Amino acid sequence: MKVLLTGASGLLGRQVLKLFKDSAKHEVTGTAFKRTGKNSELVSVDLTDKTQLQQLMNKLKVSQQTSANRLVFECYVVS
Known about the structure:
The longest helix has 12 residues, at about 10-20. About 20% of the residues are buried. The model has no long low-confidence stretch (mean pLDDT about 80). This protein has 2 helices and 3 strands. It is an alpha/beta fold.
């Protein structure tokens, strides 16, 4: 299964990314907003930019992505 893990540079995200990578069952791509340096395995994406997110999902051939935002009224659905 292909997995797009948003927030992969955070406290929880780093651990979830490691679990997915340790499992040979999944192909995982982790994203972060700021913490994506030259040596990082994470892809930089701004989740508030609907076009940027859709382009990444199309490139990776990921059909569904979920994420959380503490400001619920600013969330939208991309499918």
